[in-house]
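Entry 12.
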Amino acid sequence: MKAAAFDLVRPETLAEAAALLAGPDCRAMAGGQSLGPMLNLRLARPAMIVPIAHLAELRGVAEDEAAITLGAATTHAEIEDGRTPDLAGGILARIAGGIAYRAVRNRGTIGGSLCHADPAADWACTLTALGASVRTWRPQGGRWIALPDFVTGAFRTVLMADEILQAVRIPRPASGARFGYVKSCRKPGEFAHAMAAVLDDPARGVRRAVIGATGNRPVILEGPAAPAREAAALAGSGLDTVAVQMELAALRRARAQVAA
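Predicted 3D structure (tokens):
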């Protein structure tokens, strides 16, 4: 199929983009790797598309001893290739390198993935485990939002119509922290049917597991491993018995990476 007709308006600043997005039936597009197929399948039929990945205000990197902050238009490939700073052990490059296919990673962006909020996407699950937050931009003033508060459900976020995700802040785990990430796909490049990320950071008092690909927002489990609690959390997610077992298997494997 072909996309339904729409207007394409290219802004030169975030302020111009926000003004356009405040209008009716308008969608922002960064890399277009999720919205593009939706347009072609006519699952999305906006009257206007506003491309934003070229905006300088969505680019750039800042880092200090506490965290790395990536512009929302940073591509998966830039992270995979080490063109941006990484956490110890190459955690971010490992996550980025497992997203879809290289052609998708060349165009897809970290901010676009989070805003699309697909339950099976890699960044929402892994960055939640890492304790990330996002900074948004609005004409009236932006805000910092922790990821558990940013993603409200499948394909839903707290972004207002004229609010644009500008940057992603990822805390640095302390020395000695361990991270595990496992996702189950029928073949490489496909969306995951089950995924789990685990951060064990004793120096900061963080023990967190996050389960993704549940069909809704990620399931967050704080504290040490507790199989009964994990099973109970998934039992209330609406997943069938097979899907629950796949999720628990992914979580066990992620925990095994941390313990190795």
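Annotation: The chain has ten helices and 14 strands. The chain has three domains: 7-51, 56-171, 178-259.
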